[in-house]
């Protein structure tokens, strides 16, 4: 569910009576991408620079294990979510880091799906293209307790109200996430790191009910930009009694 630069060389030419001697200078190697030293090993992605500069998250040896609450103030109301750090500490630490650096503020959720077995709203890319990220990636924290799909041993149900990370393959988590508005069938390849409360589901349902923006090629798409613009105006994390935005 998700995501992707340029190099040139110049050759000089000397003509006529003018003679130029080139002085060779040693090539300067690009610095190695930074990686945090803690258990999450957040790693810079030079080939996929950040859509907004945020740096790498804090990566403590003793990880967060308590739940926190996050509110996405959207154009359709508040979506309140509980983050489960006991199940996905690296993901929760990263998500909080991005919120505290205002990465998600004034962004649009770029993808809505309405397949029979996949019904999600995908957000988290400030570029709005579906390929933007935070300039780093980190490991999967895959779910082990999702209900299996009968007769499909490689699939599980991501239940309505699930909050999970989008990715571009194993261990490529970044900033994009999806909110499940109806039970969806997927491989268990996407980190689940929280749930959405009932009031938040009402806002999500309003976006989903609006459908998907038609295109000249497809007047009734089942995958694409939401017909009702779904903007995250501000994201806040409740680490203390008062929200931090």
From TrEMBL:
Alphabetized, the UniProt keywords read: Isomerase, Rotamase, Signal
Where in this chain does the record put each PPIase cyclophilin-type domain?
66-237
The record's listing under InterPro entries reads: Cyclophilin-like_dom_sf, Cyclophilin-type_PPIase_dom, Cyclophilin_A-like
Keyword Isomerase set for record: yes
Q: Where is the signal peptide?
A: 1-29
GO MF terms held by the record:
peptidyl-prolyl cis-trans isomerase activity
Its Enzyme Commission number(s) read 5.2.1.8
Where is region (Disordered) located? 29-51, 131-151
Q: Which reaction does it catalyse?
A: [protein]-peptidylproline (omega=180) = [protein]-peptidylproline (omega=0)
- What does the record give as the function of this protein? PPIases accelerate the folding of proteins. It catalyzes the cis-trans isomerization of proline imidic peptide bonds in oligopeptides.
Q: Which PANTHER family match?
A: PEPTIDYL-PROLYL CIS-TRANS ISOMERASE B-RELATED (PTHR45625:SF3), PEPTIDYL-PROLYL CIS-TRANS ISOMERASE-RELATED (PTHR45625)
Indicate the family of this protein: Belongs to the cyclophilin-type PPIase family.
Q: What is this protein called?
A: Peptidyl-prolyl cis-trans isomerase
Q: To which species is this protein native?
A: Catellatospora coxensis
């Amino acid at each position: 569910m998700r995501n992707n630069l340029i190099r040139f060389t110049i050759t000089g030419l000397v003509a006529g009576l003018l003679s130029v001697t080139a002085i060779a200078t040693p090539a300067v190697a690009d610095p190695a991408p930074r990686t945090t030293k803690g258990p999450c090993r957040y790693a810079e992605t030079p080939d996929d620079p950040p859509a907004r500069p945020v740096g790498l998250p804090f990566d403590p040896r003793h990880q967060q294990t308590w739940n926190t609450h996050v509110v996405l103030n959207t154009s359709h109301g508040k979506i309140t979510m509980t983050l489960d750090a006991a199940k996905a500490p690296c993901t929760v630490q990263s998500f909080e880091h991005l919120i505290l650096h205002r990465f998600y503020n004034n962004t649009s959720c770029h993808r809505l799906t309405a397949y029979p077995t996949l019904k999600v709203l995908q957000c988290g890319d400030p570029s709005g293209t579906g390929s933007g990220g935070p300039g780093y990636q980190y490991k999967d924290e895959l779910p082990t307790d999702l209900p299996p799909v009968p007769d499909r041993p490689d699939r599980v149900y991501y239940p309505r109200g699930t909050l999970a990370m989008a990715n571009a393959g194993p261990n490529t988590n970044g900033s994009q996430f999806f909110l499940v508005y109806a039970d969806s069938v997927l491989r268990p390849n996407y980190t689940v790191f929280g749930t959405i409360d009932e009031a938040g589901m009402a806002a999500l349902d309003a976006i989903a009910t609006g459908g998907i923006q038609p295109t000249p090629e497809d007047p009734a798409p089942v995958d694409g930009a939401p017909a009702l613009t779904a903007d995250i105006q501000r994201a806040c994390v409740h680490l203390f009694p008062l929200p931090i935005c």
